[in-house]
Amino acid sequence: KTMEQNTATKPIRCKAAVCKVAGQPLEMEEVEVAPPRAHEVRIKILCTSLCHTDVTFWRLKGFPPRHPSILGHEAAGVVESVGDHVHEVAVGDTVVPVFLAQCGDCPDCLSDRSNICSGLPAGRPGMPRDGTTRFSFAATGEPINNFLGVSSFTEYTVVDVAHVVRLDPGVPPEKACLLSCGVSTGIGAAWKVAAVEPGSSVAVFGLGAVGLAVAQGCRMRGAKRIIGVDLNPEKRDIGKRLGITDFINPNDIGERTVSEVVKEMTGGGADYCFECIGSTSVMAEAFQSSRKGRARRLQWRCADEHTLARHP
After folding, report:
1. Per-residue pLDDT for 307 more than 60?
2. pLDDT score for 65
C-alpha cells in the first residue's frame, strides 16, 4: 500500500521495447509512464504476446502507428493505480487490456448487432479521450506514441478503463494475455458473429491462434463436426486437443480441392466456414466449401482482424 500511495500520482520509469523506424528492430529504452488521468488505469504488465497485427503495423511505413511508438496489444497485468471516475477496477485487480473499447453507453455498445464502440472509436492516435500520450523517453522527455490504446511492450502502460476487462487472478498470465485479442477473436467469431448452432458442421481454414480459438468456440457452441484445414501436419494433433474432429492437409489430397473434400465429408458443404489466414484465394475456397442455402460466416485475419469479436 505504501508503494502504491507513493507511485499512484507520479510518473514511473521502466523499460520498454520502442519501435523507432518501421521494419527496424525494436530498441530497449528507459521510458517514463505518466500517472493515469480521469477514466484511465495504469497497469503493470505481467505477460504480453506477439500478434500478427503487431508485425503488420511494425512493417508499415507512412501509416499509423507513428514513430517512435510502443507496440503490443495482447497482455495481462495488474492495476497499479487508477485515475478519477474509475469504478470498474481497483488497485491490485488482474486485468487484460483490449484494443476495442466498450464505453457501455453509446448506441453501438448497447446494441447486440454492433461490435465497435462509437463513443470511443478505435484507431485514433493517443489516448481515446484526449489524443495525448502517457509515454516519453526518460532521458529527453520526447513523447512516444501509443498503439491501439494498449501498448503492452513495456513494463507499465496506461489504458482507458473502457479498454480494460477484469479477470480472475487465478488465470495464468501467459494464457490470460491471449484473451486480449486472438482467443476472443476466434471464440467471438464462432459464438457471437456466426452463433454456430448445436449439431452444425464447421470448416476452419488456418489453425493458428485465431483458428484454434474458432475451433474451441464451435465446440463450446455444440458443433458436431469441426474440420481443420492447415498445411502444417503438426496442427492435426494440436487441433484435435482444441476441438477439431477432422483434419485436412491440402498437400495430401492430390488433385482435389479442399472444397471438394469438405463437401464430400459433410454431404454437400459445411454449415459454417471460417477463414483465419487472410488470403483471398483461401477465402474463395472457404466460400466454395459452404453448404448452399445456409448463412455463410467468414472471419479473416488482417490488420484490423479483431473487429469481428467484442470483449465481454
Report:
1. no
2. 57
Question: Distance (Å, rounded) from C-alpha 287 to C-alpha 273?
Answer: 7
For residue 207, pLDDT over 70 is answered with yes
Beta strands in the chain (DSSP E): 12-18, 27-33, 40-49, 74-82, 94-97, 135-137, 143-144, 156-160, 164-166, 201-205, 225-229, 246-248, 272-275
Nearest to 36 by CA among 200, 163, 138, 191: 163
- Structure confidence by residue, pLDDT tens digits, 90-123: 999 999 999 888 988 999 999 887 778 888 877 7
- Give me 108's grid cell: 453501438
Q: How many CB atoms sit inside 10 A of residue 25's CB?
A: 9
- pLDDT score of 298 more than 80: no
Tabulate helix, strand, coil % of the chain (nearest 5): 25, 25, 50
Distance between CA atoms of 195 and 214, rounded to whole angstroms?
11
Kindly report, as residue ranges, where domains of CATH 3.40.50.720 are found in the chain. 183-308
The per-residue pLDDT for 193 is 86
Domain 183-308 is of which CATH architecture? 3-Layer(aba) Sandwich (3.40)
Question: Which residue from 53, 143, 152, 135 is spatially nearest to 96, judged by alpha carbons?
Answer: 152
Place of cell 453501438: 108
Amino acid at 164: V
CB atoms within 10 A of CB 142: 10
Q: CATH number for 2-180: choose from 3.40.720.10, 3.90.180.10, 3.40.50.720, 3.40.50.10800.
A: 3.90.180.10
297: pLDDT confidence band, cut at 50, 70 and 90?
A: very low
Q: Which three cell numbers stand for residue 43?
A: 497497469
State residue 308's pLDDT score. Answer: 36
pTM: 0.82
